[in-house]
Design brief:
Elements: H1 2-14, H2 22-34, H3 37-53, E1 55-56, E2 63-64, H4 70-73, E3 78-85, H5 88-96, E4 102-106, H6 124-132, E5 138-141, H7 147-162, E6 166-169, H8 185-193
Parallel strand pairs: 3-4, 3-5, 5-6
Antiparallel strand pairs: 1-2
Helix pairs in contact: 1-2, 2-3
Length: 198
């Protein structure tokens, strides 16, 4: 009976991953135990190492192996630009575009009063400290296009403008390669509202 409890605990642990339901968790657990125990050991070791060694960068709040992340210490980054994102994965996506060369601030979430997530829970006091240093000239608000993301961008935009710092919002619109007839009306409305000179 003890083995069943351990197996169920493994399935429940795997269900913590986003998009993993009971059946997927079961498949993963059985695969690791039946066919890839070495892989399971590698996963366990990698998780243990990550939990012990990865911290939050004291400046940008991104995940890092050191007190300051490589982006914050890079002399090639424009320190007058700050891009505010919701998550480390958002930061990676933006940075891989190769277009933005400033610094970042990672909120690790977004405002959601119904879920009890207010300004303190997403590091707004830390962000305000950065803004008050006086080196930032523009803040790019790159939160997601959700109700919570928009509310978060609006809230931060007000804080930024109150300090007489330029606040900009990333544009949303028709994706490259997208066809207008298959694009939803909200995306088209955003694209038209955010149009620029050709």
């Amino acid at each position: 009976m003890n083995d069943v409890t351990i197996l169920e605990a493994l399935k429940q642990a795997l269900r913590r991953l986003p998009g993993v339901g009971p059946k997927s968790a079961g498949r993963m657990a059985y695969h690791l135990l039946e066919r890839d125990r070495e892989g399971a050991r590698e996963i366990a070791q990698a998780l243990t190492n990550a939990l012990e060694r990865i911290v939050h960068c004291r400046r940008c709040n991104n995940l890092s192996e050191s007190d300051l992340c490589p982006l914050c210490t890079s002399p090639r980054r424009d320190k007058s630009l700050l891009c505010v994102v919701e998550s480390p994965s958002d930061l990676v996506s933006l940075d891989q575009s190769g277009v933005y060369n400033g610094l970042y601030f990672v909120l690790m979430g977004r405002l959601s009063p119904l879920d009890g997530i207010g300004p303190d829970e997403i590091g707004i006091p830390h962000l305000e400290t950065l803004l008050d240093e006086g080196t930032i000239k523009e803040v790019v608000l790159a939160t997601n296009l959700t109700v919570e993301g928009e509310a978060t961008a609006h809230f931060i935009g007000e804080l930024v403008r109150a300090r007489h710092i330029k606040a900009t919002r990333i544009a949303y619109g028709v994706p490259i390669g997208g066809e207008l007839e298959f694009t939803d009306r909200n995306t088209l409305a955003r694209a038209l509202a955010g149009r620029r000179e050709a």
